[in-house]
Amino acid sequence: MIRRAVALAAWLALSASTGCSKQESTPSAAPTPAQDRVALDAIVGADLAIEKVLKQADDLTAHGSDDEAVALLEKKAIPAIDAAVAQARGASVGSAWGIARRDEWVALFGDRRTEAQRYAAAIRDGELEGRVAAMQAQAALTRRAMAAAQAVQAGPR
Fold first, then answer.
1. CA atoms of 76 and 78, how far apart (whole Å)
2. Closest Cα to residue 92, out of 148, 152, 38, 156?
């Protein structure tokens, strides 16, 4: 902000001293995938944190701590997913590649939220088939997330 003010003041001073009366606008450069990558890397980081919480919930259910697993899903995983959705939606990306990657993550986080809720309900209900289906869905989402993270890492093609 200060840099902008200094630059604007310098430009105005230069314009006044050269007698320039017409302001010319400089077109801003289009965002590049490299610039988008910073925001996208943060989104990938948020997903990795979510994965850790989901793994903890799986471990808790494996050890028979179903109530703790449900609490973890509802109090940590789902709010973390909601925060990641907000982060992804608000990500400052501008290239076609960056927008496509961001939209992919928004959709993935939406699916993660749905499946985390389904998993918590299946654990709470003691429904074995529901647990297995939810775990399989989580595994599929993890594969999607890995592919999305690799797409961010690889950059545009």
1. 6
2. 38
